[in-house]
């Protein structure tokens, strides 16, 4: 053998076909202080800011049992889903999920949109630095970029800052706003995300002042509020369609997460009927509303409607195409978590599209992943 040393080449990693994509995972900082450390000045250092941040920066819901699965608390401490390694074991190891899309709920609407935008910026930097980098050697975490829904200019700047980052694959707008999502103030955001190929995601994200807001005022109980998520999403969807947003931005994609899905069917019927009769009021709407929904909107499976007679759920599939409209979600680590086995309720021919294909297409994700240990 010659004196020249031959370096052994590393073995090529085995690739695994993706089977399950979870579009709704909620990571938390270990404490408000962890997230606060990423908040840019002057917001991080002012006493006023710290007081406001304490009001909105809690990494867990203020709801019964903190709205968390009791087995989701990490052995090393901290709130549920604040330990990326332990969460990976539950989500990827036990549940069998291949990709988890992270939607942090750390940002609450505030009276000061600049401060809200600063917390959004901090959330994005924290998520990138931890879950999407340090704890993402396996490459199975992706993230939603948080932006302020109340200041379009600040939202656009934050999106531009992260444009091209492979780990941020959608942009979240908070649906608790004073303006329906179709109105013109949001259009610069839609123009930018359409150009970048990033879907918009709407996800319930209460604030201290709006925590139990319903379409007709404030509810008395969390129970009421939780039952009405679909009404909020319906308002935004009708606005998006009849303001002509999908006609103006033909590449825009909108994901509605954690609001149920059966309500879309009768709403689409009603929208189609009204468009046929009084559609002249909205000349920018050139197609049937149900067609815009089919082409531009996707909904999460969680929470799955559970009628007393489960046969009624089967009958629903005759009225909608679940393999077209739905993407799988666990809502990990919350109390109403849905395991992948829940997809067994859906028609057999739709299950693969719901569990995998729709999300791979919607987010342009690779269909295979490296076989890398979780820790």
CATH level-1 class: Alpha Beta
Mean pLDDT across all amino acids: 88
Strand content: 5-15%
Global Rg: 21 Å
Order of helices and strands: EEHHHEHEHEHEEEHHHEHHEHHEHE
The CATH architecture name reads Alpha-Beta Barrel
Count of structural domains? 1
Low-confidence stretches: 55-65
Major β-sheet profile: 8 strands, parallel
Question: What is the CATH third-level topology name?
Answer: TIM Barrel
Total strands: the figure is 12
Strand order of the largest sheet: 2-3-4-5-6-9-10-11
Specify the number of helices: 14
Notes on the structure:
The protein is of the alpha/beta class and about 375 residues long. The protein has a single domain (about 15-365), classed as Metal-dependent hydrolases (TIM Barrel, Alpha-Beta Barrel), CATH 3.20.20. Helices cover about 40% and strands about 10% of the residues. It has helices spanning about 30-35, 45-55, 85-95, 115-135, 150-160, 185-195, 220-225, 230-240, 245-250, 265-280, 290-295, 310-315, 320-325, 350-365; strands at about 15, 20-25, 100, 140-145, 170-175, 200-205, 215, 215-220, 255, 295-300, 325, 370. The strands form three sheets. An eight-stranded parallel β-sheet has the order 2-3-4-5-6-9-10-11. A hairpin with a 2-residue loop joins strand 7 (about 215) and strand 8 (about 215-220). Helix 5 (about 150-160) packs parallel to helix 6 (about 185-195). The longest helix is centred in the first third of the chain and has 22 residues, at about 115-135. The two termini are about 40 Å apart.
């Amino acid at each position: 053998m010659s004196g020249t040393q031959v370096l052994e080449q590393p073995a090529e990693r085995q690739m695994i076909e993706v089977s399950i994509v979870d579009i709704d995972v909620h990571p938390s900082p270990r404490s408000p202080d962890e997230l606060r450390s990423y908040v840019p000045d002057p917001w991080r250092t002012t006493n006023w800011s710290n007081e406001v941040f304490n009001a909105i920066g809690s990494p867990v819901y203020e709801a019964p049992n903190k709205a968390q699965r009791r087995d989701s608390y990490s052995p090393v401490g901290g709130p549920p889903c604040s330990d990326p390694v332990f969460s990976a074991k539950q989500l990827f190891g036990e549940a069998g999920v291949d990709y988890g899309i992270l939607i942090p709920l750390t940002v609450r609407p505030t009276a000061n949109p600049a401060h809200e935008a600063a917390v959004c910026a901090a959330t994005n930097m924290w998520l990138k630095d931890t879950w999407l980098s340090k704890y993402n050697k396996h490459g199975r975490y992706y993230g939603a970029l948080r932006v302020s829904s109340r200041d379009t200019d600040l939202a656009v700047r934050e999106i531009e800052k992260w444009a091209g980052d492979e780990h941020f694959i959608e942009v979240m707008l908070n649906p608790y706003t004073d303006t329906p999502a179709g109105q013109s103030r949001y259009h610069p955001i839609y123009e930018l995300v359409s150009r970048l190929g990033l879907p918009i995601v709407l996800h319930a994200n209460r604030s201290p002042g709006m925590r139990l807001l319903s379409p007709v005022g404030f509810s008395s109980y969390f129970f009421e509020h939780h039952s009405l998520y679909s009404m909020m999403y319906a308002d935004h969807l009708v606005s998006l369609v009849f303001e002509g947003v999908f006609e103006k931005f033909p590449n825009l994609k909108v994901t509605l997460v954690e609001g149920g899905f059966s309500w879309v069917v009768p709403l689409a019927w009603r929208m189609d009927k009204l468009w046929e009769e009084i559609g002249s009021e909205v000349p920018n709407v050139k197609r049937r509303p149900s067609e815009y929904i089919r082409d531009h909107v996707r909904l999460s499976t969680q929470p799955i409607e559970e009628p007393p007679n489960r046969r009624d759920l089967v009958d629903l599939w005759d009225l909608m195409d679940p393999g077209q409209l739905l993407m799988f979600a666990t809502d990990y680590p919350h109390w109403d978590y849905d395991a992948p086995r829940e997809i067994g309720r859906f028609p057999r021919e739709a299950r693969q599209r719901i569990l995998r294909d729709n999300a791979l297409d919607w987010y342009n994700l690779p269909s295979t992943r490296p076989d890398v240990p979780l820790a």
